[in-house]
Automatic annotation (TrEMBL):
<keyword id="KW-0813">Transport</keyword>
<comment type="similarity">
    <text>Belongs to the ABC transporter superfamily.</text>
</comment>
<dbReference type="GO" id="GO:0016887">
    <property type="term" value="F:ATP hydrolysis activity"/>
</dbReference>
<dbReference type="InterPro" id="IPR027417">
    <property type="entry name" value="P-loop_NTPase"/>
</dbReference>
<dbReference type="GO" id="GO:0005524">
    <property type="term" value="F:ATP binding"/>
</dbReference>
<keyword id="KW-0997">Cell inner membrane</keyword>
<keyword id="KW-0067">ATP-binding</keyword>
<keyword id="KW-1003">Cell membrane</keyword>
<keyword id="KW-0472">Membrane</keyword>
<dbReference type="InterPro" id="IPR017871">
    <property type="entry name" value="ABC_transporter-like_CS"/>
</dbReference>
<keyword id="KW-1278">Translocase</keyword>
<dbReference type="Pfam" id="PF00005">
    <property type="entry name" value="ABC_tran"/>
</dbReference>
<protein>
    <submittedName>
        <fullName>ATP-binding cassette domain-containing protein</fullName>
    </submittedName>
</protein>
<dbReference type="InterPro" id="IPR003593">
    <property type="entry name" value="AAA+_ATPase"/>
</dbReference>
<dbReference type="InterPro" id="IPR003439">
    <property type="entry name" value="ABC_transporter-like_ATP-bd"/>
</dbReference>
<feature type="domain" description="ABC transporter">
    <location>
        <begin position="4"/>
        <end position="235"/>
    </location>
</feature>
<keyword id="KW-0547">Nucleotide-binding</keyword>
Length: 261
């Protein structure tokens, strides 16, 4: 089973390496089939953590590896979905999904087929010829997901991909994300500021505290798997265990005592 591993990772931006690190001694392991969410206050290093996993920045200390091999840059094994959809608005939905495959030298017929397959998976089969500027925010994020998944990555890295969506669209996206995660067999790493989203979706939630960014709390959950096994999402989200978990994680984010404990 493939896994993306951060071992004792610290990060200083800039060459001087002065002051507190942005991340300090962070270790986590994301195996395929796992769904890890990272929550924490603004500035706690969540995006930096994702950038390390993506290979966009290199650690100042420690190691980032995939199956034991050092990560030296971005790669098709690790697809990224950003908060701002980062699509080409003037191109068609299909081209947005197919373009990264083209850049990797994949032939036109395969590109078209993969684009069709993943656009259908995110419910956009009837929108393939539209331009991105004609889509709603939720539809754009679904194009971003289809694009990421069309590369059949081993790991799907997402930085607050649902942050700009309204509450109803977000709830629908949660269910879609879980189905796509199951179907793709990818390991998912999700940065989110929604504690509820983290508890519902994840097999494991990590809380970062700021200055220096470090892991102060971890917990495992089964709600997402239970949803995929057919349980009702609203019933799951109103279970006492769900509500307790949400409160515990909020406390871990905001309470100094817990943070230092
Ligand atoms: N490219 C960068 N250069 C210098 N400092 C940065 C850079 N990116 C982020 N930072 C700093 O690192 C800290 C953590 O930022 P970030 O990882 O974006 O946190 P989060 O996503 O949790 O809000 C912040 O203090 C931020 O100002
Ligand atoms: Mg961020």
């Amino acid at each position: 089973m493939s896994s993306l591993n951060l071992a004792g990772v610290s990060l200083h931006y800039g060459p001087e390496q002065t002051g507190l690190p942005v991340l300090q001694n962070v270790s986590l392991n994301l195996a395929r089939g796992e769904f890890i969410s990272v929550i924490g206050r603004s500035g706690s290093g969540k995006t930096s953590l994702l950038n390390l996993a993506g290979g966009f920045v290199a650690p100042s200390a420690g190691r980032v590896t995939v199956d034991g091999k050092p990560v030296t840059g971005p790669g098709p094994d690790r697809a990224v979905v950003f908060q701002d959809d980062a699509l080409y608005p003037w191109r068609s939905v299909r081209d947005n999904v197919a373009l990264p495959l083209k850049l990797r030298g994949i032939d036109a017929a395969t590109r078209a087929e993969k684009a069709r397959e993943w656009l259908a998976a995110v419910g956009l089969q009837d929108h393939q010829d539209k331009h991105v500027w004609q889509l709603s925010g939720g539809q754009r994020q679904r194009v971003g997901l289809a694009r990421a998944l069309a590369s059949e990555p081993e790991f799907l890295l997402m930085d607050e991909p649902l942050g700009a969506l309204d509450a109803m669209t977000r709830d629908q996206m949660h269910e879609l994300l879980l189905s796509l995660w199951e179907e793709s067999h990818a390991g998912a790493l999700l940065i989110t500021h929604s504690v509820e989203e983290a508890v519902f979706l994840s097999t494991s939630v990590i809380v970062l505290a700021p200055t220096p960014g470090r892991i102060v709390h971890r917990e495992e959950f089964e709600f997402g798997r239970r949803y995929l096994e057919g349980e009702d999402p609203r019933a799951l989200k109103s279970e006492p265990e769900f509500i307790d978990a949400r409160e515990r994680l909020l406390a871990a984010i905001y309470e100094k005592e817990l943070v230092d404990g």
